[in-house]
Amino acid sequence: MLTTGPRGTKDILPDLSSHWRYIESIARDICNRSVYQEIRTPIFEHTELFLRGIGETTDIVEKEMYTFIDRGKRSITLRPENTAAVVRSYLEHKLYADLQPSKLYYIGPMFRYDRPQAGRYRQFHQFGVEAIGAKGPVIDAEIISLAVLFFRKLGLNELMLYINSVGCPKCRPVYRTQLKDFFHEKLSFLCEDCQSRFERNPMRILDCKNDKCAEISNNAPHMVESLCEDCSTHFSQLKQLLTAAQIDYIINPRLVRGLDYYTKTAFEIQYPPLGAQSAVCGGGRYDGLVAECGGQPTPGIGFAIGLERVLLALEKQKLLPEVNTAIDVFVAPLIGAAQAMAFGLLVKLREQGVTCDMDYMERSLKAQMKYANKYPAKYVALIGEDEIAQGKVMFKNMATGEQQLTDSKDIIRMIKEGMEK
Ligand code: HAM
């Protein structure tokens, strides 16, 4: 047990961490350009926040939360998602007093007690964006465009953007009744989960993955046909905005999302080659969430992208950049007595911004040269008996094979000249 991590978790080893930095840098770059600022909230929150925010009848709250009582007898939950926490922070720090909307983003781990499989983990990472304080559809289109830009920037093709409107507290109850009327007679044909959803959350029946439930749902009435005027206008304008930005979309009337806070716009981006776990991004509007968390009624919208799934997709399409392990200088002490001089040079070079490493294992000259080629190193600074005697280093250019006895203070100049060539 001590040599295996918990089920559903993954170590990100050094050879893969550069891939993570790569996708994270693209996310940050898009957010900076679009004036979204980073917010970092704790990875645990009071359980109550998620019960109220995500909804007590959702799968996340019913089956997937990591909840425990801490030593102060408080119920604490590792965040299964970050929208509720961002809203909590928005209220706690009165971000509504700043210029609105508050445009925020985050990158970090989330925790769900899911059944692990390819693309589904118990600790996973999301890049998420939230815009709180604007009610018009332009911000919906902007949020969707950020997700699309992120995927385009990574070079991912074959993505499908699905949109829907899930209405608002005004029009949804009417639709809910229609839906219940529709499913009422078919109840015994639905799966056990959907039978229990029927009373508590009938819209969730629409996105059940069970084949029989999906077949029955095919003929169910659509929310978009029951929208009130406000929701209907919002949805039409969103479609126009997406078209203006040349963002292709498919309307999916059965897209309802698994969190209770959504109102009006709901969307998902799928990457079908990932199979069962093909949802790489999910998001939508949550105009009731701020009030639910104790604030003034304030609209909001956002999305979250599952970064493990993005990496799987990039791997599939061979879009991950080569890992660059090259260094400027490898410092090679050839005898034990040269270690102090080598180490002094190493620290001086690093201080000057040079990327360098040295031999720590008392390897032979041949083994050190082999090692230097592995990085590869542009230069090797050899220090043996003669070099110690003269207080200089034998500086070798690995590309040309040229070497010369060099004063250590000239090394920086030579590296810079070499870089300019
Ligand atoms: P979500 O649809 O639950 O939405 O999750 C968003 C994305 O996180 C999914 O599309 C998927 O890529 C990834 N994801 C979810 N669960 C797992 C898992 N167990 N393993 C790996 N990846 C996973 C939310 O979390 C909302 N907070 C999104 C949002 C932000 N809505 C408004 N603002």
Q: Can you characterise this structure?
A:
This protein is an alpha+beta fold. The protein folds into 2 domains: 14-171 and 227-316, BirA Bifunctional Protein, domain 2 (2-Layer Sandwich); 327-420, 3-Layer(aba) Sandwich (Rossmann fold), CATH 3.40.50. It is 39% helix and 21% strand. Helix 1 packs antiparallel against helix 5 and helix 5 packs parallel to helix 9 (229-244). The protein is elongated. It starts with 13 loop residues before the first helix and ends with a helix. Bound molecules: histidyl-adenosine monophosphate. The site of histidyl-adenosine monophosphate has 25 residues, from strand 6, strand 10, strand 11 and helix 11.
Outline of the structure:
The strands form 3 sheets. Strands 1-5-6-11-10-9-7-8 form an 8-stranded mixed sheet, sandwiched between helices. The protein has a 5-stranded mixed sheet with strand order 13-12-14-15-16, sandwiched between helices. A 3-stranded antiparallel sheet has the order 2-4-3.
